[in-house]
Design a protein that fits this description.
D-Maltodextrin-Binding Protein, domain 2; alpha/beta; 3 domains; 12 strands; 308 residues; three-stranded antiparallel sheet
Length: 308
């Protein structure tokens, strides 16, 4: 385990970007940590960090080495989890990266339910844009990703994917609330509230606008989906949402949701995935299985919409 401790030091320095910052996290002195890093570089017979005035950063050799470090740490966590599972006590830490329109509503109650059965399992849940989510997976900094409209699937082993037709969120007294279905032009003419370019929902809307020759110009743009829903609730405009996240938030009763008419806008896909060919720790694998089962259950409950 001394070897793993050395790897932990390298990982901490790479994350912090400085010896001093990593030393604070590790609760050792900066000079002691610096000696450890120098000893590791001497053993490897190559420098893995570039030193500069603001701290340190990985060089090309360091980038290769940190991937090995994180793979070793992830494998040790998997073995620990398997050993604990043999004794009937599930422990472990599950790291989840998600896109911003999903994490705050869909995942917390699932985590809570899982921990009610297995209190020895802890979680970290972080929301990013799509590219960052995929980078977290590739860098072994996330065990599971839950994301809408991945940019690429090359590194991802798909655990579940569910088609999602966008729904329009609005205040209960909005004039369009009386209509059972909406056209894309209705949405665009009533103060559209949208995430920034590059996000999955925005990508789908802009593609539909190009197809129909419409101008996609949001009244308010934000990467905070909760803020966009709040603005819609206040009557500032119309936001967009995913059926699975709507079903996970019954408390948001002040909002009403209306689907688009068939063929108005293409659906997107919600994915749960892990790094391709990676053996997950028991706790992460079991949680991923529960995510898949929950998604399938919830989709069966939702009304079916004709696919464009």
């Amino acid at each position: 385990m001394r070897h793993m401790l050395a790897l932990k030091y390298v990982d901490a320095v790479a994350r912090a970007g400085s010896i001093r910052g990593a030393a604070e996290v590790l609760a050792i002195t900066p000079s002691a940590l610096n000696r450890r890093i120098l000893a590791i570089e001497e053993e490897l017979d190559i420098e893995i960090f570039e030193r500069h005035a603001q701290g340190v950063r990985l060089n090309s050799a360091g980038e290769l080495f940190i991937h090995h470090v994180r793979a070793q740490m992830a494998d040790l966590e998997r073995v620990r989890s398997q050993i604990a599972d043999l004794s009937g006590v599930r422990i472990g830490h599950v790291r989840i990266a998600t896109t911003k329109e999903i994490g705050g509503r869909l995942l917390p109650r699932l985590i809570q339910a899982y921990r009610a059965d297995f209190p020895g399992v802890t979680f970290s849940l972080h929301a990013y844009d799509r590219g960052q989510v995929e980078q977290q997976l590739h860098n072994l900094e996330a065990d599971i990703v839950v994301m809408f409209q991945p940019l690429r699937l090359a590194d991802m082993q798909v655990i579940s994917h569910q088609q999602q037709h966008l729904s329009v969120a609005m205040a209960a007294d909005h004039p369009l609330a009386a209509q059972p279905e909406l056209r894309l032009v209705d949405f665009l003419e009533h103060n559209p509230l949208l995430p920034p370019r590059g996000e999955g929902i925005r990508e789908i809307v802009e593609a539909a606008c190009v197809k129909k020759g419409l101008n996609c110009k949001p009244t308010i743009e934000s990467d905070d989906s909760a803020l966009l829903r709040h603005l819609a609730r206040q009557g500032a405009g119309l936001a967009l949402d995913l059926p699975l996240t709507i079903s996970a938030s019954p408390q948001e009763s002040e909002l009403v949701y209306r689907p688009f008419k068939a063929h108005e806008i293409e659906p997107g896909f919600l994915f749960v995935g892990q790094l391709h060919k990676r053996n997950l720790p028991v706790a992460a694998r079991k949680f991923a299985d529960q995510l898949r089962e929950m998604f399938e259950r919830e989709m069966e409950r939702l009304p079916q919409i004709e696919t464009p």
